[in-house]
Every structure is written in structure tokens, then in C-alpha cells.
């Protein structure tokens, strides 16, 4: 019984190391490549990370489509990834409205607040896609393209 438990612990430990070593990021990037995008650029990812985007209301104050329906009056009009995640990706970010801490984006950083279903950063393909969908819609006002997501992941993996 003891040997079986030891084997299980070793197996789980190996899986955790594989999840945190970039294997999942490589799989996600390969999926984007299969969609026919160009080569990924960490520099373009960095530019996108710091770029400021207008909120769902355009510069003229007119609604710009469906995103207008979800805008709150207290939302920042100009936003970037740094609005919530900060400039130092090894430190926790903070949600703009709730103030809830967000684990550091750097895969090398230790999480500060881990929910029971959280694993290491970038260790779950479904979560990567979920957060790209949600955050791109809020930050950029639309879904990010496969090229943009690949560029962002290429930037983030090295932080």
C-alpha cells in the first residue's frame, strides 16, 4: 500500500512539473500555428500588453457595438493588460473594480492567492482560452486573434 501511495505522489509531482515547464504553452502555441498564423513575436506581445485601448465607448462617446452593453460607468475608459495585472509581472495584480488579488502573470512567480482549482500559471489550456476570451473582450473590445494570443503567450512565458 505504501509503495502504491509513493508511486502516486511521484506521478502527480511529475505532472505538476510538466505543467509548469511550458509544455502546455507549447501545445497552445502549436494549436495557434495550426490555424495558419505567422511566427510569434514576444516583442509584439509586449507591445500589446502595454498598449492602451479605449473602452467600449469610442473617442466620440458613441457606443461601439455589443461591448457598450456591458460597460459600467466606473470602468476605466482607457485600459491595457496592465490595468489589472500591473507592470511587474512577478507581483500580484489587482482587479480594477473588486480589488481582488490576481496571481502574478509570470510563470516563474509563486501564486499569492490560489483558489482550490488553480494550478501553476499556464498549466491548463481551457483556462488559458477562457481568460483570453474574457480579458481580450474587456481590454481590447473584441476577441484576440490567434496571432495576438500567440504573441502574448510568447511574451508572458519569459517573464
Helical segment count: 6
- Give the full name of the CATH homologous superfamily of the domain at 67-159: Cytochrome c-like domain
Q: How would a textbook summarize the main sheet?
A: 2 strands, antiparallel
End-to-end gap: 42 Å
The CATH architecture classification of the domain at 67-159 is: Orthogonal Bundle
Q: What is the average of the pLDDT values?
A: 76
Structural class by sheet pairing and helices: mainly alpha
Q: Would you give an account of this structure?
A:
With 159 residues, the chain is mainly alpha-helical. It has a domain at 67-159: Cytochrome Bc1 Complex, Chain D, domain 2 (Orthogonal Bundle). 44% of the residues lie in helices and 5% in strands. It is built from six helices and four strands; from the N terminus they run αααββαββαα. Helix 2 runs antiparallel to helix 6 (146-156) and helix 3 (42-50) packs across helix 6 (146-156). The radius of gyration is 18 Å and the shape is globular. 19% of the residues are buried.
What order do the helices and strands come in, and which of them pair?
Layout (H helix, E strand, L loop, with lengths): L1 H19 L2 H12 L7 H9 L2 E2 L23 E2 L2 H4 L7 E2 L6 E2 L22 H15 L6 H11 L3
Antiparallel strand pairs: 1-2, 3-4
Labels describing this entry:
mainly alpha; 6 helices
In short:
This protein is mainly alpha-helical and 159 residues long. The protein has six helices and four strands; from the N terminus they run αααββαββαα.
Amino acid at each position: 500500500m505504501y509503495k502504491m501511495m509513493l508511486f502516486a505522489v511521484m506521478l502527480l509531482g511529475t505532472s505538476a512539473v510538466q505543467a509548469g515547464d511550458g509544455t502546455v504553452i507549447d501545445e497552445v502555441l502549436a494549436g495557434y500555428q495550426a490555424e495558419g498564423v505567422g511566427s510569434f513575436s514576444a516583442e509584439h506581445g509586449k507591445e500589446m500588453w502595454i498598449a492602451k485601448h479605449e473602452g467600449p465607448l469610442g473617442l466620440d462617446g458613441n457606443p461601439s457595438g455589443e461591448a457598450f452593453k456591458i460597460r459600467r460607468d466606473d470602468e476605466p475608459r482607457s485600459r491595457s493588460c496592465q490595468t489589472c495585472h500591473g507592470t511587474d509581472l512577478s507581483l500580484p495584480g489587482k482587479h480594477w473594480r473588486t480589488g481582488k488579488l490576481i496571481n502574478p502573470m509570470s510563470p516563474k512567480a509563486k501564486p499569492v492567492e490560489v483558489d482550490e482549482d488553480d494550478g501553476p500559471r499556464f498549466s491548463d489550456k481551457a483556462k488559458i482560452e477562457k481568460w483570453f476570451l474574457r480579458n481580450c473582450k474587456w481590454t481590447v473590445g473584441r476577441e484576440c486573434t490567434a496571432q495576438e494570443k500567440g504573441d502574448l503567450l510568447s511574451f508572458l512565458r519569459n517573464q
